[in-house]
Task: inverse folding
């Protein structure tokens, strides 16, 4: 029995789709009753809260393999640690952990939170597989598309840093393989990059080509970006963490292309051009 945590979120939902399609026995964990009611047909929903260990032990009863993912929030280490503790109490055999690129060598921002959980998991005595994905292609739609629609431009203190964006659907497909056949992936730490590394200016040119209107990237000072994020109402911890992560890329990391993802998937990953062609309407004025 596989338990998919974070099933209402971006990653958990996509992993749930993959596991459902495989026909493997599974259940999905939600925090709210409303979300649990919307579980897809054929999926048994359980309600639990990462902050409540007793609810976790109930959700984990009879579970062999767990997919562990939490929102990127300051409580991530505490919450994911609770799941590892409850998994040990209930006899879970294997945890597939959603970590992040940089957890291996960048002791700041989100990667350092994920690393703390990785270290706990590695010494827990439970079997594990760790996925460290690079930035999702879906972030481009979530974060850049709004100003592209309004102004034909997007802004960041990114200079000419490169990112090997990866499609969340490829991450989920790789994660599902480890959930379904944990022995084949036991003890592995997979650093997942997309098939092409691009600067933000190259990304702008690709978006422009996909959506058929001029799009430009504007490099701005980090202080201007910080001010804009705070003015949009983002909490200070999140601004610090996002800018800290951005410095991972401007420091020259996160722009590698490797064969880890295609070898886990057993097929070529989705390219940035394919992704942008699929989501081209998100960048158009009338979208
Ligand atoms: N975006 C990227 O480019 C990227 C790249 C690499 C790694 N990551 C990592 O990927 C992870 C997840 O991303 P995501 O986009 O899937 O996040 P998300 O959409 O926010 O989903 C997080 C899930 O965690 C659940 N959750 C939060 N607090 C909970 C609690 N107390 N009890 C039970 N469930 C709780 C949420 O449930 P509710 O719906 O109830 O809140 C939601 O289902 C993050 O840790 C991030 O650091 C992201």
Result:
């Amino acid at each position: 029995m596989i338990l998919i945590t974070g099933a209402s979120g971006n990653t958990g939902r996509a992993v749930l789709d993959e596991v459902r399609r495989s026909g493997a026995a599974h259940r999905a964990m939600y925090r709210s009753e409303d979300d649990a009611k919307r579980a897809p047909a054929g999926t048994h929903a359980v309600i639990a809260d990462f902050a409540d260990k007793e609810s976790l032990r109930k959700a984990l009863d009879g579970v062999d393999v767990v997919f562990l993912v939490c929102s990127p929030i300051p409580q991530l280490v505490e919450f994911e640690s609770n799941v590892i503790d409850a998994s040990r109490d209930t006899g879970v055999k294997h945890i597939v952990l959603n970590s992040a690129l940089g957890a291996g060598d960048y002791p700041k921002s989100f990667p350092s939170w994920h690393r703390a959980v990785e270290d706990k998991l590695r010494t827990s005595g439970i079997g594990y597989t760790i996925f460290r994905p690079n930035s999702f292609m879906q972030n481009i739609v979530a974060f850049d598309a709004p100003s592209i629609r309004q102004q034909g431009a997007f802004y960041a203190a990114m200079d000419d840093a490169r990112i090997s964006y990866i499609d969340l659907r490829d991450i989920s497909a790789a994660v599902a393989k480890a959930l379904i056949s944990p022995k084949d992936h036991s003890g592995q730490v997979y650093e997942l990059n997309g098939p092409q590394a691009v600067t933000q200016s190259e990304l702008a040119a690709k978006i422009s080509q996909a959506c058929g209107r001029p799009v430009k990237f504007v490099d701005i000072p980090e202080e201007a970006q910080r001010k804009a994020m705070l003015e949009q109402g983002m909490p200070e911890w999140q601004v610090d963490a996002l800018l800290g992560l951005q410095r991972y890329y401007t420091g020259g990391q996160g722009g590698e292309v490797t064969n880890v993802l295609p070898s886990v998937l057993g097929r070529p990953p989705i390219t940035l051009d394919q992704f942008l062609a699929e989501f081209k309407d998100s960048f158009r004025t009338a979208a």
